[in-house]
Amino acid sequence: MEAVNRAELAGKLAEIEHRMRQAEVRGAVASYIPELAKVDPARFAVAVALPDGTVLQAGDAATPFSIQSISKVFTLAIALGRLGDQLWSRVGREPSGLAFNSILQLEQENGIPRNPFVNAGAIVVTDAILAGHQPRAVLGELLHFIRLAAGDDDIHINRAVAVSEQATAHRNIALAEFMAAMGNLRNPSALTIGTYVHQCAVEMTAIQLARAGLFLVNAPGCPRLVAPARIRRINALMMMCGHYDGSGEFAYRVGLPGKSGVGGGILAIVPGRASIAVWSPGLNTNGNSKLGTEALEHLARATGWSVFG
Ligand code: DON
Q1: pLDDT in tens, 241-298
Q2: Domain edge (last residue) among 148, 171, 200
Q3: How many CA atoms lie within 13 A of 196 on its CB side?
Q4: What total of structural domains would you count in the chain?
Q5: pTM of the model
Q6: Is 244 a catalytic residue?
Q7: CA–CA separation, 157 vs 139, rounded Å?
Q8: Which end of the chain has fewer surrounding CB within 10 Å, N or C?
Q9: Are residues 218 and 189 in the same domain?
Q10: Residue 91: which domain range?
Q11: Residue 85: exposure state from Cβ atoms within 10 A (0-12, 13-18, ≥19)
Q12: For position 262, which CATH number holds?
């Protein structure tokens, strides 16, 4: 991987922002969560956090957006910290090749979700950290973890987004109820889904998200919230499963572990070097940010950043 010149990197981010602002085909903003449908599709942000805490940015990098499924990375880190490898008796580590909210595979595989990033898997992870606790305490722990990682206390849950998702959470409730039927849910599904929709409604700016991702970069100067061996494994899961049935395409085009959210954000990790957050609300057909992926592809090409050398 090439060393990066900060001035050149800043110039590259400005160039990418300019290019993405002008794109006419921007993808479709998620509408199944009504509150997310209100977001302006013209928004665009990119932020790169370096291990010494420096953040380079362009665009709407100080505007909060709904992190949605990117929250699954933080809950996974918390669950692994609390349960260790026991978690893997309830959720797998294989790519699903199916949509993030698919019900199909779950029945064929007896209520054990393929991985912790598809909705069913993330619901199991949330259920695991909820056991023996109140939702309020679990959400408090999640916010504490994210704030510590980002070095910023001004990170909150958007209640309107959580309420909006809860009102239309039929598929997630179906996934949770099916897992309950198969003995893979420990709490009442309403409690687990209530916690899950609130975790997805965490709002962060691209600057905050890039900084929060530094705990996965594993370089001197980065927050030490997770052991290095576990960091590698979370990155492996992000690479293989972080973009659902678009994970292969993302790995091919960007070459970095990444996690997307239907709010249009993507967190990408350059091991040992940087954490990158992009935000563009329009999604591709896999439910991943269309221009966010394009921006990361440009950035990876310009910097030479790739886990594949
Ligand atoms: O459960 C859901 O459907 C949403 N709260 C999160 C889905 C999501 O972000 C998928 N990612 N691209």
Answers
A1: 999 999 999 999 999 999 999 999 999 999 999 999 999 999 999 999 999 999 999 9
A2: 200
A3: 31
A4: 2
A5: 0.98
A6: yes
A7: 9
A8: C
A9: no
A10: 69-200
A11: exposed
A12: 3.40.710.10
Q: Which residues are CB-contacts of 66 (< 8 A; sequence separation ≥ 6)? A: 35, 36, 39, 158, 161, 200, 201, 202, 203, 261, 262, 263, 265
**Tens of pLDDT, residues 79-115:** 999 999 999 999 999 999 999 999 999 999 999 999 9
Report the nearest atom of ligand 1 relative to the CA of 70: 9
Based on the domain organization, do 208 and 59 belong to the same domain?
yes
Domain-located, residue 105: yes
Q: How far apart are alpha carbons 299 and 309 in whole angstroms?
A: 15
Say what the pLDDT of residue 182 is: 98
Closest listed residue to residue 100, CA positions, set 189, 172, 158: 172
Same domain, 58 and 143: no
CA separation for the pair 268, 216 (Å, rounded): 10
The two structure tokens encoding residue 37: 């449908």
- Give the Å distance between the CA of 8 and the centre of ligand 1: 34
Is residue 101 lining ligand 1, measured as CB closer than 6 Å?
A: yes
115: number of Cβ within 10 Å: 22
